[in-house]
Task: structure prediction
Amino acid sequence: MNWLQKTSQSKPFPMPVPFPDSGQVGMDIARPGYNIIDNKMRQNIADEEKERFDMKFLGSGSMGTVVDIGGGKVRKYTDREDEILAAKIALETKPECLIPVYSIEQIQNNPNVWAIDMAKAKLLNEEERAEITTVRRRVGWRLWPGQIRSEINREDHTLIQSDYLNLVTKIKDIGLTPSDASQANIGWYGGKLVLFDLGLAHEDNPSYEAQEV
Result:
């Protein structure tokens, strides 16, 4: 057992909501994002969050944790400044390809932790996820512009696949990177496909633009 797993099992977590099924989470079942935020969030900040919201754990990825705060809204805890930059684009310009963002709040300094309040998207069903996976396998996970254009020219797309290609094109058009627009990070809002996980959307990737020739 490594030191981090041992430590995580021996201390209570300050996060406002515990990881599902356990208040003491080992690295074998916790996603990295939960442990990252949990290790950075101070107990007094977690207590303040508990007082402010009646929240339920929704999910945790590689870089953050999301909770349901009711009223069709979720709250994302993150320590990534690039995610905040993408969230500001969603908040200020309201592009239809991104989930609506209602507020961005820095809840802690040193180390920095932010909370992003956004709309709650409807997740893709298994059939939709499978069809998008098929497209991503053909074009590659980085979704280079040339590959997207080639894929768009195909005539055998299903409706969800066409919607997905339109989505990643719009993400690129507003200056963000669609490489992380996987079936796990997109969903339905207002009858349209949107990117709801903004974690890597603002990631600097000069090689991506270099493909635009």
User: Anything to note?
Assistant: The chain has a mean pLDDT of 80. The chain has eight helices and eight strands. The beta strands are 56-60, 64-70, 73-78, 101-108, 113-119, 122-123, 186-189, 192-195.
